[in-house]
Design goal:
There is one protein chain. Helices cover 17% and strands 34% of the residues. It is of the alpha+beta class. It has one domain: Deoxyribonuclease I, Chain A. The strands form three sheets. It has a seven-stranded mixed beta sheet with strand order 2-3-4-5-10-7-6. Strands 1-14-13-12-11 form a five-stranded mixed beta sheet.
Length: 207
């Protein structure tokens, strides 16, 4: 399994803040990228104080059960993660294109997983978990496909996040090509002046 945190800004800092097996890759954006998220101190006439935002990504291997979802929210909160990209949540909700759920003070945002035809077991699903500041800055969420989700956050510049879950390398070539075509469309649709983070499980192998 490979998890990618791809950022377009050259000053981006990569900082591992979580133990192995918990949250694999963490990306901390420079403070000036998200200065609209902070508020001026009470009684202050000056501009808001910039704050650092931590962006991370994690293949959850299901958070359908409440204890697992609660544990994830608790861990994300304890490591002060603002935006957590999620793959394989396996929560099926076909009647809701985007579902918003509050968990332990964090906000879970998901597009629906799907069911494997032979066994009807839940598979895949992408989403993100954000803290309250990120939720306030959230401009919108779009389900590009069942494997790709995009979100946009207010800031200077605007922060765009793409969460994706690639087909396995045993998948049919047509399915893999369709995924990367959709991913390319999603990336190229982001304005060039936005700060872009691509958070995904690309199911790669390192030999």
């Amino acid at each position: 399994m490979s998890i990618l945190g791809q950022l377009t800004h050259p000053d981006t800092e990569l900082s591992p803040v979580a133990p192995s097996g918990c949250l694999h890759v963490t990306v901390a954006t420079p403070v000036h990228h998200i200065n609209r998220w902070a508020k001026a101190a009470e009684g202050s006439q000056g501009p808001p104080t910039p704050v650092k935002t931590i962006i991370s990504t994690f293949n959850t291997n299901t958070i359908r059960l409440l204890p697992r979802c609660t544990e994830l929210a608790s861990q994300a909160s304890s490591y002060e993660i603002s935006i957590l990209g999620i793959q394989e949540h396996r929560c099926v909700h076909p009647d809701e294109e985007i579902r918003f759920t509050e968990v332990e003070g964090m906000h879970l945002i998901t597009s629906s997983a799907w069911r494997e035809l032979a066994t009807m077991s839940a598979q895949g699903g992408v989403g993100l978990m954000v803290n309250s500041k990120a939720k306030e800055a959230l401009r919108g969420v779009v389900s590009v496909s069942d494997r790709i989700l995009t979100a946009e956050f207010d800031g200077n510049p605007v922060t765009s996040v793409i969460i994706c879950y690639s087909p396995h390398n045993s998948s049919e070539e047509k399915e893999v090509e369709a995924f990367y075509s959709k991913l390319h469309q999603a990336v190229t649709s982001i304005p060039a002046h936005n700060f872009l983070a691509v958070l995904g499980d690309f199911n790669d192998r390192v030999y």
